[in-house]
Amino acid sequence: MRDLLACPQCGAHPLELTVLTEETCAPAPVSGKRCTAFCSLQDEAVSPRESTMRPCATCYSKEIREGILHCVKCAGEYPVIGGIPRFNPDALDDFPEFFAQHRARFRRPPAAAAAEFQSLHRSTKKSFGFQWLRYRVTDHQENRDHFYRRTAARPGTLGGHLFFEAGCGMGRYLKVFTDEPGAEVVGLDLSLAVNRAREENQANPLIHVVQGNIMHLPLRPGAFDHAYSIGVLHHTPSTRRAFHSMARLVKPGGRISIWVYHVWRPPNLRGIAALHATAKGVVTDALRAITTRLPHSVLHYLCYLAIPAGWMQARIWAAPAPIKALLSPLLLVHLSIHENSDIRLLDTFDWYSPQYQWKHTVREVKGWFHEEGFEDVDSTGFEVSVRGRRKAPEAPSF
C-alpha cells in the first residue's frame, strides 16, 4: 500500500518505511503489476511504461504489523500500529505505549496534537469511535444494497479496479468487496473504528484500512478508479472542502459517488408538507444542540427511548392520510424507523451525537461536481446521492 500513501502535511510521495514487526500471510490472489508509482517490496519507483512483471503476490502476502512512515520532505512521521497506518496528529494520545517503546526509532521527538486538530475533529473522532466500537449490529445484505444504490456500481464488475472509501467507520461497506474478486479498496476513517474495520476485513489482503483525516488525505492524488463516501462528508467541518479533498484522488476517467443529508425542506416541497418539514428541522436541530454536548454513554442510554418511539413513528407513517395528519406532531422529532430495533438504536445515536451535521440540496452538490471537473453527473435515487466521472484527457489529433 505504500504506493498509495502520501504525506498529509506536504503531499510528498513515497514515504520511507522503518519496519518494526512484519508477518507473512497466506498467498494473496493477485496477478500482474498492482502498483503504478512505487514498488514497496523492491523499494524503487515504477515506470508507467514498464512491462516488467513484479513480485506483487509476494508483497501482498507480507503485512507490516508495526512500523514508522517517514516523510523526507517535511520530516513528518506516522506510526503503523496493528497493521494500520495512523496519520492523525493525536496518535501519541491514542497509543502512548507504542511511542514510549519505539521512541528511539523516530527521527524526531513525537509532538502532541495541534490545537486546531483537537478543536475541529476531536469531538467527531470520539463520537464515531464510541459508536462503531459500541454497536456491533450490521446487516451485510442491506449494506450491499446501499453500496450499489449509492455508487451505481454493478455487482460482479468491480474486479481489477481500485476504490477509495472516505469515512469507512467499522468497515461495513468495505466488506462488500469480499464478494468482488480482484477488486481492491482503501478505507479511511478519523476514528478508532478503523480497528474494527481491520478486524472484520483482515482476511482479504486487497482491503486496506488507514486512520486519517478526510480534510488532509494521506493518499496520492489521481490514483483511484472510484472514490465514494456514503453518509460521511456532512460530518466534517466543511462538506464542500471534504469533497474537494476526496475528488483529488480520482484518476482521469475515474468515478466519484457521494451521499449526503438533504435540507429539511427540499425545494420541491409545498404546502402542509413543507411546513411540517420546516418544523421538524427546528425541533430536531434544537434537540441536537443539547445531545451533542452530552457524554456519549448518557446519550447511548437516552437513545433506548428511540426503540419504541421509532416503532410508533413507523406505524404513523404507514397509516391512512387522515390518521397521519392527526398524529403528525409525533413525527416532529427525527428518529430511526428501521424494522430492526438494534439498528434503530444505532441510527438514532448516529443522528444526535456528531458535532457536525450539514445538509444540502441536489443542485448544490451537482454544482460541486461540475466545479471539480466531473461530467456525466447523475443524481437519480435517494437524495442527496450524486455520482460523476472525471473527464479523461482527449486523444491527440494528427
Give an overview in words.
With 398 residues, this protein is an alpha/beta fold. Helix content is 33%, strand content 18%. It folds into 3 domains: 16-113, no CATH class; 121-261 and 358-398, 3-Layer(aba) Sandwich (Rossmann fold); 271-352, no CATH class. The protein has helices at 56-60, 91-94, 96-101, 115-134, 140-151, 194-201, 239-247, 271-291, 296-302, 306-317, 321-326, 341-352, 362-371, and strands at 16-24, 38-39, 44-45, 62-70, 77-81, 84-85, 162-166, 184-189, 207-211, 224-230, 250-259, 374-378, 385-390. Strand 4 and strand 5 (77-81) form a beta hairpin. Helix 10 (306-317) crosses helix 12 (341-352). The radius of gyration is 22 Å and the shape is globular. The model has no long low-confidence stretch (mean pLDDT 93).
Give a quick set of tags describing it.
Rossmann fold, seven-stranded mixed β-sheet, alpha/beta, 398 residues, four-stranded antiparallel β-sheet
What does this entry show, briefly?
By secondary structure, this protein is an alpha/beta fold. It has three domains: 16-113, no CATH class; 121-261 and 358-398, Vaccinia Virus protein VP39 (Rossmann fold, 3-Layer(aba) Sandwich), CATH 3.40.50; 271-352, no CATH class. The chain contains 13 helices and 13 strands.
